[in-house]
């Protein structure tokens, strides 16, 4: 968080500078006259490294020069920065909310609150303050030109101000996304990430948030929400590999919407060669991941074939999937379990036995059922009485 602290402190300095050239913050601009009592007080506060002495000086400023005009905004901002530095996040939230009452459009304060919520690991507050920050930006972008500025100059000034705050806006989105992503409870994580995508629809993290939300709803066994989010994301991004695989897998396993499952699985295979490598993966890791994803698509196709009683095609797809799924025990075991049934339906019992043996050879939810099938196949059928 070292860079984060630097960024927020820099924004605070820009917001309350003595030079109009730095007045590119969003919210009230509080000029500090050079040589004034407030200027001397702020210089002393900023120069003090002792935490206890800094608080004494902030208290002194707040009780004196900091009571005049808009200086309470400056005083509250100093308190917020101080308490975040001391990791007293609840006190920072308390004063930050007070500052919002004085200046609802303070983007600097919103950034400070996001920083505090991020450092505390408070995902609910992160979403709340992220929404507040985005609303501030929206109001600023839509604000009409003040009477003393013509429309063209105002448009240029807004463009420059937004550009000056570009790093802060990027940090805000990253911090809110990361906080929601790290929530352990799958259902809550899904809800927060869905909310993130609603708040920041144009963020580079929006589609990623929806993708993680869909899989999180699946983990939480909330199929209706999973289908809603996944289908919505595919409507926005028809080539989204993760959602193509998720939906083809779900529908094929359920035996529902089989034509959709078939189409999604085939499209996943088609887009894989041109899929973009995720950040942080080596070329080798990416090739392994693509192999697994192709295996999942082929396995879904095989299950669709079984549901449609095309067992010969099922066996072909499932056999092709097997070596690609070896790196994931659960997916491999499920694939071999499916293959066993396809082969049984084709009366290729020796091959079916081998497939069930492979399904039982790894630890997965399919180990027990595969062992049960092997036992059943080993037990001679009882002859009917004549």
Task: Provide an overview of this structure.
This protein is 72% helix and 0% strand. By secondary structure, it is an all-alpha fold. Helix 6 runs antiparallel to helix 7. It is elongated.
**Average pLDDT taken over every residue:** 89
Indicate the low-confidence ranges by residue numbers.
1-23
Instruction: Provide the structure class.
Output: mainly alpha
> What share of the residues lie within helices?
over 70%
Taking the sheet with the most strands, its summary is: none
CATH architecture of the domain at 1-162: Alpha Horseshoe
CATH class of the domain at 1-162: Mainly Alpha
Identify the notable features of this structure and list them briefly:
single chain; 386 residues; mainly alpha; Serine Threonine Protein Phosphatase 5, Tetratricopeptide repeat; 72% helix; 0% strand
Summarize the structure.
The protein has 386 residues and is mainly alpha-helical.
Task: Give the SSE map.
Layout: H1 2-15, H2 37-47, H3 51-63, H4 71-85, H5 89-102, H6 107-120, H7 123-142, H8 151-164, H9 166-181, H10 186-199, H11 206-219, H12 223-236, H13 241-254, H14 258-271, H15 283-307, H16 311-321, H17 329-345, H18 349-360, H19 367-378
Helix pairs in contact: 1-6, 2-3, 3-4, 4-5, 4-6, 5-6, 6-7, 6-9, 7-9, 7-10, 9-10, 10-11, 11-12, 12-13, 13-14, 13-15, 14-15, 15-16, 15-17, 16-17, 17-18, 18-19
